[in-house]
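To whoever picks this up:

The nightly regression suite flagged MFS transporter as changed. Nothing in the input moved, so I suspect the structure step. Input below, exactly as stored in the fixture:
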Amino acid sequence: MATGYADLLRARHAMRLLVGTLVGRLPNATAALAIVLFTRAEGGGYTLAGVLSAVYGLSNAVGQPLLGRAVDLWGQPRVMLPAALLSGAGMAVFALVGIAPLPVAYAATAVAGLFTPPLEGGLRALWPSVLKRPDRVHAAYALDAVAQEVMFTLGPLAVTVLVAVWNEAAALLVVNALGVLGALSVVVSPPSRRWRSAPREAHWLGALRSGGLLALFGAFFFVGLALGTISVAAVAYADAHGDSLISTHLLSALGAGALVGGLVYGGREWPGEPETRLRALVAALAVGYLPLVLVPGPAAMTVLAGVAGLFLAPSIACAFVVVDRHAPTGTVTEAFSWLVTAFGVGASAGTAVVGPVIEWGGPAAGFSVAGAGGFTALLVLSATRRVLAAPASAAGAVARVKSDRNESAEPGFTTGHRA
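Regenerated output under the current build:
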């Protein structure tokens, strides 16, 4: 398994693209915490902090698929670098001006969120032309999902350290400057400059005209909802036990489980259709959330959280493959960006919904929402089984079509039946 990942990362440009994308996405991974800390430091209340964070999040949800469509039309450098500069400038204005005047703060966070470059979708569009082989792309999707978990764990820690060393404004400025540098590293790379999407059919719905993608996005809205509820329920569980660090232990265990699961999943090839495998993975994910309702002592709860995370990264990695198989011609970056948006909006909805549930029934009720979200995602995938069915064309025809349409102007391949 380790040899396979080492082989992947030794591929020319692979390490640069992975690291550049992760650094470029730091602002997005840390925005919620950084905005709250800065707003509080400026004298604003938690309500204002939450609203500003929501403005960023909603703007990001709108901007990702729109910028993804622009990338498919005009290429990565011409879209991502200007977007990164505008996003960084928006957050810099917020850091320098503060929360007064308030309309400027709202506008600055909206600009920062709206123009966050779609680096995540862009990287997944680049992998086939960089790695050349289906087994490598399969492993890259899994490693990518694992790396996101690590980034969303270490990113907030980096913000906390920057606040301790300097202050909240400096944390915003440094993180967003790093984000611009990460995006720059990606878009000036030869694979990014060479990549071109295939010509697309003019259609205002873009990637959303694919029924299979709509089904997938609907399912992953509920996967995101489940994860968002766990984040809040973990805090409530920690409060009930009188130790705020317990929530950190639970979420770290969840991330560790995802890391292990993703590495194991990406370390081998899997037979059969990825759509069928995705249903099995989401079913396992939903089942893994159920024992959290038992809310045992902190040690046992930490173990349960680790088990609950095992199938998260594999589910996301498999979803990447399904997106590639169902994205209409010339819409692959937009399609990946829609998946990111559906997951993120679901997580935001989960954090909003679970609060009243916890107030009514305590932490156990909060964790039950996560289980309900997981099983609703499975229900969506099961109800849309026919829509998500793999393309009926022969594998060779699929390979020719897919390499021509979504992956690169360079010779490519389809992920086919084994990815």
